[in-house]
Amino acid sequence: MFRFRLDGSSGVPPYLQLVHQVRQSLLLGYLREGDRLPTVKDVAADLVINPNTVVKAYRQLEHEGLAGGRPGQGTFITATAAPVPPQAQQDLRASLEAWLRAAGEAGLDDEAVTALIAVARQDLRQDLKKERVQ
Amino acid sequence: MTQHDADASVPALRTDRLGRRYGKAWGLRDCTLEVPVGAVAALVGPNGAGKTTLLEMIIGLLEPTEGRVSVFGEASRADTAETLARVGYVAQDHPLYRDFSVTDMFHLGRAMNPSWDQGLAGARMDALGIPLKRKVRRLSGGQRAQVSLTMALAKRAPLVVLDEPVSSLDPVARLEFMRDVMASAADADRTFLISSHVVSELERFCDWLIVLAEGHVQLAGPADELLGAHRLLTVPRATPDAELPGTAIHRTDSDRHSTVLVRADADQHAVQGDIGWQADPVSFEQLVMGYLQRRTTVTTHGNPAPAAQRPGPNTKAVPQ
User: Fold this and answer.
1) Which of B110, B122, B137, B181 shows its CA 20 to 30 Å from the CA of B289?
2) What would the pLDDT profile of B117-164 be if each residue is shown by its tens digit?
3) CB contact under 8 A, B186 and A53
């Protein structure tokens, strides 16, 4: 059975953390179509969080077409979306690791790396937006 | 499964201009609020804010001086069996008869509550490893809290009121206690009202927030909506409140800039941060602390928020 975790210091609302974990696990292939998610009550007790937070997360997953409730049985993964192809994931990860190594050698700490990625992503988005406009 | 929108027409709890006077001083006044069925509501406020006064009127221990309380649509009246049956209460010090065994306490519960669920009570003690024959005085603080919670759950009251339930417990006992509260909150139609000082812990437990200070409701409503309607702005120090988008709730001034908690549900610019100033989302704790410090703070630039911008004392969810 899939188990959620909660990072109290991340600043991300708990329900979004649950949604992200399902999305990520789908991408990585840890969750597949037909898998049953734990009951609201079990997640609430396991993580010691408000059950309505879990309800909200499950609703969001249903809204995104990733999960669906079956009356009396629970909530199941319904996504057929293919995860990232293993080869592509491997290649991307290898180039990312090489980049991280270079960043470390250049003296960037974790915080600087995160900041640089955020800035680069922001710039890329702006560029893509401009390209679309043109 | 608990859902706020299950039956929006009849709230689990409603107070209407509720007030209680002690001699000449009001312990609580103009308190109007609602808690929907299935919510886990946090009641937060400093000592003397009126929390216990409010709780005691809800559970029927105290007669209101003015206004009314209704629980699931029925008026609460002090010292009536109907009111007592609809509300489970776990008091701060977990008062149990020290020379009674756990079994004795449950006999008492059964004698006093027609809907008493002996199976639930026994099963909980089993699961927690608390021997039924043990005397209350030989239980640990955590076990006493659990017996007290079990008494409230086994009477099958649809509204359970917890007054500072974990303040006397160690961190592990706290977690175990709240684990059981969260699990039973998942059961159909049960509503919790939890008063607490420990603001940082409440975010994960509660989806409804009530902030009480100086005998008045400062803020009340669904926690995620309230969080979404507020921002922390970082602005140049001299910026007057009137130029800020939304209503300034509380500000902290440093040498060159100020950090201001603003309520801006009507002002999308502030919410989206598209105003030239830095606008950050607020945490649960920042939100609560901002409102708790609101009235008592004298702002250093000598320009307190005009009274008209403050929420009226009977504000429910939207102090605009």
Assistant:
1) B181
2) 999 899 989 988 999 999 988 988 888 888 998 998 898 889 999 998
3) no
In a domain, B314, yes or no: no
Print the domain residue range for B30: 4-224
CB neighbours (10 Å) of residue B97? 12
Say if A53 is an interface residue toward chain B (CB within 8 Å). Answer: yes
3-state secondary structure of B216: strand
Same domain, B215 and B233: no
Q: Are residues B211 and B238 in the same domain?
A: no
On whether residue B315 sits in a domain, the answer given is: no
* Tally of domains in chain B: 2
pLDDT at B310: 39
B192: nearest CA partner in chain A: A50
Q: How far is B98 from chain A (nearest CA, A)?
A: 30
Q: Tell me what pLDDT residue B3 has.
A: 43
Q: How many CB atoms lie within 10 A of CB B213?
A: 21
Query: Of B224, B241, B257, which residue constitutes the final position of a domain?
Result: B224
Neighbours of B234 (CB within 10 A): 13
What 3-state DSSP class applies to B31?
strand
Same domain, B151 and B249: no
**B234 and B217 both lie in a single domain:** no
User: Which domain-ending residue is among B168, B190, B224?
Assistant: B224
Per-residue pLDDT of A2-58, as tens digits, reads 999 988 777 788 899 999 999 989 888 888 889 999 999 999 999 999 999 999 999
Measure CB to CB from residue A52 to each of B2, B183, B203 and give the nearest one.
B2
Domain harbouring B192, CATH code: 3.40.50.300
Q: How far is A52 from chain B (nearest CA, A)?
A: 6
Two tokens, residue B154:
């086994």
Same domain for B177 and B202, yes or no, is yes
Contact with chain B for residue A55, Cβ under 8 A: yes
Lowest mean pLDDT among A58-72, B4-18, B152-166, B210-224: B4-18
What is the nearest CA distance from A80 to chain B, expressed in angstroms?
27
Domains of chain A and any CATH numbers: 14-77 (1.10.10.10), 86-133 (no CATH)
Q: How many Cα atoms occupy the beta-carbon half-sphere of B245 within 13 Å?
A: 23
Strand partners, A70: A74
**B199 or A75, which is more confident:** A75
